[in-house]
Amino acid sequence: MNEHYFSSSPSGQDRRRVVDVELAEQDVQVETSGSIFSPDGVDRGTRVLLEVVADPPAAGEFLDIGSGWGPIALTMGLLSPGADITAVEVNERAAMLTQTNAARLGIDNIRVQHPDDVSTGATFDLIWSNPPIRIGKTALHDILTRWLPTLKPGGQAWLVVAKKLGADSLLPWIQSMLDAKAPGEFSVRRAATDKGFRVLLVERVL
């Protein structure tokens, strides 16, 4: 890939292909393309996340940060057809693929948006994300500062981060950032370790 998958308007050719994947314990086919994250299927980090998290509630406001072609948002939609799911993505091609794949799988409760188009007052009961670590620490911190405080009281955010990409240092930073914004309202802990990845759990307790 000659450009980063987080480019907003990838210049590489949009060569669509259909791949077989397993989502929500179902064998399904999805469309992918070049110049997006993990075009060959579900990446290892996302797979670890989806294996660790419990099934989402039947309803609520859910968020997928950085949807790519859609594995996390699609899983949420398959498991919780009564939920209202927002998938945020800056890569226009990936965002279109999330929409295409939702339609392909008959999922009608996913809204795909550029982060700037999401209402600043939006709040969420559940966040699942394989955040784009490779965009750099400053940009990553900006993303987490924007979205993690949107958890509703009682809400949870599940994040998967590779150990070699700084998962262990990210956890205390998240706790410090949230404590500064809302003292005593959030807890952050490591929920699982698997295959070189850490799954972090952020809970809004108040």
TrEMBL record:
Q: Where is the Methyltransferase small domain?
A: 28-171
Q: Which CDD domains match?
A: AdoMet_MTases (cd02440)
Q: Which GO terms describe its molecular function?
A: S-adenosylmethionine-dependent methyltransferase activity
SUPFAM superfamilies per UniProt: S-adenosyl-L-methionine-dependent methyltransferases
Keyword annotations for this protein, in alphabetical order, are: Methyltransferase, Transferase
Superkingdom of source: Bacteria
Q: Which GO terms describe its biological process?
A: methylation
Pfam families under this entry?
Answer: MTS (PF05175)
InterPro entries per record: RsmC/RlmG, SAM-dependent_MTases_sf, Small_mtfrase_dom
PANTHER family found in the cross-reference section: RIBOSOMAL RNA SMALL SUBUNIT METHYLTRANSFERASE C
The molecule here is called Class I SAM-dependent methyltransferase
Please tell me the species this chain comes from: Enteractinococcus helveticum
